[in-house]
């Protein structure tokens, strides 16, 4: 019997064969690509904790945009971003752009050390230059009815090129250009970016927070992925897996990926699920939980510790009490942890942990450190 390829995608930013949830946000932005200029969702910022699917969503949406006749430039917030946008746009639109235009973009791009030095020597001039280069690219696309989608991953604050981009983008939108900006970042990075006065325009962007995915959506996507891959899963295995995944996209891929080779024949039974879950938990710890834990301050950890006595959901008032602090004091750590994606709101004045396995992990860590 030939072995079936594992259909799960636990690599970062890989678009899975079946997305769990996220249906409406995807649909709304797809509609925006059809509606064109004026649709507010053409400028959208996604926030979410590690492993919630930001990169995946940007990739998927850029692919969808291309299918609807847009060209795309897919970049991250790293030095050289502006240049990268032009190069990628030129490549993506090469079938439409005149030869001369392509050469111009490329020659400026490969201008090397001299042009770099000049750019830094005269920032304003470089900014203007970039704007006119982008504008002439859009000019050439316009007769074809084609627009440009820019996706920016891993938004970072205090990044000059982002300031420049936001200012140029604002003008292009005002001119009614066919252009779209989809950006993503960790919540605290995004709030820092939006608090930067020079980028205030982006505060008007549509915001979308990638939170936990409902169990019912996880169950469906898990089953579909397995069946489309040529295997079956028993109901009890599906139930156990969904529970362990706890609404977290990266965990869905880990659990699925690890259960797959453990199947009994082509059937993933409870035993296979349990073994897969165990392996996935281990990876989840090293990939997500450890990294997140390292970023927390003592105040954050005190808040986390004060949540542990509750079974599932904690009242903010109880947490403050256990911390021996005012609710106002506790509130600042509540906000920080919400932004880190460690906790999520569970109704008025209530919070719960967002990351699967976090409770046991935190308990163990805090004990180990005698916190
Ligand atoms: N809606 C979804 N359904 C199922 N799996 C998903 C979904 N979205 C993302 N994934 C999977 O989750 C994993 C993490 O996705 P991704 O790398 O996009 O997260 P991220 O938010 O960009 O994380 P980071 O902050 O670390 O960059 C990937 O393995 C991806 O295939
Ligand atoms: Mg990412």
UniProtKB/TrEMBL annotation:
<dbReference type="Pfam" id="PF13191">
    <property type="entry name" value="AAA_16"/>
</dbReference>
<dbReference type="InterPro" id="IPR027417">
    <property type="entry name" value="P-loop_NTPase"/>
</dbReference>
<dbReference type="InterPro" id="IPR041664">
    <property type="entry name" value="AAA_16"/>
</dbReference>
<protein>
    <submittedName>
        <fullName>AAA ATPase domain-containing protein</fullName>
    </submittedName>
</protein>
<feature type="domain" description="Orc1-like AAA ATPase">
    <location>
        <begin position="21"/>
        <end position="163"/>
    </location>
</feature>
């Amino acid at each position: 019997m030939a072995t079936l390829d594992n259909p799960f995608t636990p690599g970062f930013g890989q678009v899975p064969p079946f997305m769990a949830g996220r249906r409406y946000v995807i649909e709304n932005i797809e509609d925006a690509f059809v509606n064109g200029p004026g649709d507010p969702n053409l400028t959208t910022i996604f926030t979410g904790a590690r492993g919630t699917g930001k990169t995946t969503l940007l990739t998927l949406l850029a692919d969808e945009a291309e299918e609807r006749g847009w060209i795309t430039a897919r970049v991250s917030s790293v030095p050289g971003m502006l240049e990268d946008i032009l190069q990628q746009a030129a490549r993506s639109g090469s079938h439409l752009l005149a030869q001369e235009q392509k050469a111009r973009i490329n020659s400026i791009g490969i201008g090397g050390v001299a042009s770099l030095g000049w750019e830094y020597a005269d920032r304003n001039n470089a900014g203007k230059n970039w704007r006119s280069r982008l504008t002439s690219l859009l000019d050439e696309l316009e007769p074809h009815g084609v627009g440009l989608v820019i996706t920016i991953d891993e938004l970072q604050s205090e990044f000059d090129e982002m300031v420049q981009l936001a200012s140029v983008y604002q003008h292009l939108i005002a001119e009614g250009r066919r252009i779209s900006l989809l950006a993503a970042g960790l919540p605290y990075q995004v709030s820092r970016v939006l608090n930067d006065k020079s980028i205030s325009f982006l505060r008007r962007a549509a915001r979308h927070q990638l939170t936990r995915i409902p169990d019912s959506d996880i169950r469906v996507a898990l089953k579909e992925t397995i069946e489309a891959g040529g295997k079956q899963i028993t109901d009890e295995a599906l139930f156990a897996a969904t529970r362990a995944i706890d609404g977290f996209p990266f965990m869905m891929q880990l659990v699925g990926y690890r259960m797959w080779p453990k199947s009994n024949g082509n059937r993933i039974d409870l035993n296979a699920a349990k073994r897969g879950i165990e392996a996935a938990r281990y990876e989840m710890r090293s990939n997500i939980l450890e990294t997140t834990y390292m970023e927390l301050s003592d105040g954050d950890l005190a808040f986390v510790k004060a949540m542990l006595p509750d079974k599932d959901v904690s009242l903010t008032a109880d947490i403050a009490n256990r911390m021996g602090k005012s609710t106002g004091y506790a509130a600042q750590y509540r906000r920080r942890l919400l932004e880190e994606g460690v906790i999520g709101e569970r109704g008025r004045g209530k919070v719960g942990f967002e990351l699967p396995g976090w409770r046991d992990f935190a308990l163990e860590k805090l004990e180990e450190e005698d916190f």
